[in-house]
Write a structure and sequence with these properties.
Blueprint (H helix, E strand, L loop, with lengths): L10 E5 L4 H16 L7 E5 L5 H14 L6 H10 E5 L5 H11 L5 E5 L6 H10 L7 E5 L6 H12 L7 E4 L6 H4 L1 H6 L2 H4 L7 E9 L8 H5 L2 H19 L8 H13 L9 E6 L17 E6 L11 E6 L6 E8 L18 E7 L3 E9 L7 E9 H5 L5 H11 L8 H16 L4 E4 L7 H5 L20
Helix pairs in contact: 1-2, 1-3, 1-14, 6-15, 11-12, 11-15, 12-15
Length: 471
Amino acid sequence: MGERGEATSELVVIFGITGDLARKMTFRALYRLERRKLLDCPILGVASDDITVEELIDRAGEAIRHTGEPFDEAVFHRLAKRLSYLHGDVTDTALYDQLAERVGTDRRCLYYLEMPPSLFAPIVENLGRAGLLQRSRVAVEKPFGHDLPSARDLNARLRAVLREDQILRVDHFLGKQPVADLEYLRFANTTLAELWDRHSVAEIHITMAENFGVEERGSFYDAVGALRDVVQNHLLQVLALFAMEPPVGPGDDDLNDKKAELFRAMPPADPAHYVRGQYRGYADVPGVAAGSQTETFVALRLQIENWRWAGVPIFLRAGKALPERVTEVRLFTRRVPALAFMPQRERAQRNQIVLRIDPDPGLRLQLVAQDDQDGQAWRDIHLDSSFARDLGEPIRPYERLLHAAMIGDRRLFAREDSIEETWRIVAPLLDQPGEIHRYEPGSWGPEAAQELLHGHRSWQKPWLPESSRSH
C-alpha cells in the first residue's frame, strides 16, 4: 500500500457515517488503517442523526468489536481522536455552508458518499456550489445507475462539476486480495502467462454463490435483482482483470485502459443464453412485491471477440440461497491428444486452474495422474495455495480501497467508460429478461442453468476451504 505524497487527502468526509456500511465495513477499515499507521488525517462524519461526537465514537467502538476484529484500546483511542461529526439534511444547502465553514474551500478532501445512489449527484452538485471540490476527490458506492441511460445521466451530472480523475467509483470486489493481485499472478508467472489464451483454454466458469437469502433487504433487492446487483459490476470487473492484456505502465489509467479495451471486445449478452431463477420463499420476504419477477439467480454465457479469447465461452452464475458461500474463477484447459502408451488409448481429463476469491482466497492447479490402485484409471491431484497461509494476513477490501482513495490511487476504482461498457453488455438481458425458473433453497439453482452448459463442461462443485466443507 504505497504513498502518493502530494495527492494524499488532508481530511476524509464520510456522508452516511451512521449507516449500515459504516457499521459493517468502514469503521473496521479505518481502525485497521490506524493500527497499520496508515491513517494520518482527521475524519469528519456527516449524517442526519442528531448525535454528539461522543455517541459517534461509542457507535464506532461497538461496530469494530462486533466485526470480531482484535480490539486494541490504544489504537482505538488514536482513531477516536480523529473523529468529528456534523449532522444535517444532505438535500439542504445550509448543510454545505456549515461544511464550508468547518472545512474551508482550499482543503484537499476525500468525500466518501455512503448514501443511496439517488443522492450522489445532488450531494456532489451541492459540494460544487459551496466551492468544496476544487482540490478534492469524491468516492461513490455502487450501483452506478440501473441501466446504460441512467449510468450516462449520472456520469454527466458528476462530470459537470468534477473531472474524471476526481471520481472514485467503489466496487468492493476490486479491493479483495486475489482480485487486486490478479495482474501479478497472471503476468509475473510464465507458467500461467503462456497458457492464458484460446490456444490453451477451452472455457471459463465464474461462480458467485451465497448461502443466504435476501433476508431483511427485500425492498432494496426487489428493485435490483442478481444481474444488476453482482454481475454487471463485481463479476464483469473480475472477468476483465482475468482476461485483459498486460498494462503498459504503472499509471492509474494504464490498468483501466486495458479493462475498458477488454469490455469493448465483448458483444452484448444474448438472451438465448441467459437463465433467471428465483428461490422458493422469496415472494414471502417483507418488502418484496406480490408476484415479483425479480431474479435471485442468474446464469449466462458471454464471449470476448479478440485475438486472445475468440471462441472461448465464458459462463457466469450468481445466486442467493445456494448451498455454499463461495466466489471463484475456474479455467479449463484444452485436452491433450489420446495417450498411446496407456493400456487403453484415451485422452486425459482437462486440467483446471481455480482462483478462489472468497472465502479463504487461494489458487488451485488441478492435474491428472494415473491411479496406482488401478493402472487404467485417472485421478485428480491438486496443487493448492492459501494466500493467507503463504502471503500473510490479507488487507481487507475496504481497508485497501479507503487507503487507495486517500492517497489518490485510482487503479482500484472503476472508470466511466468501463461502467458504461458493462451496462451495454448486459442491456439485452434487461430488455428481454425471459421467464423465471423456481429453485429450492439450498440447491444450485434451476435445472435450466445446467442445460445452459450443454456441450461444455458442467458446473463444477466449487473449491471450498477445508474449514467450510459441509458435504
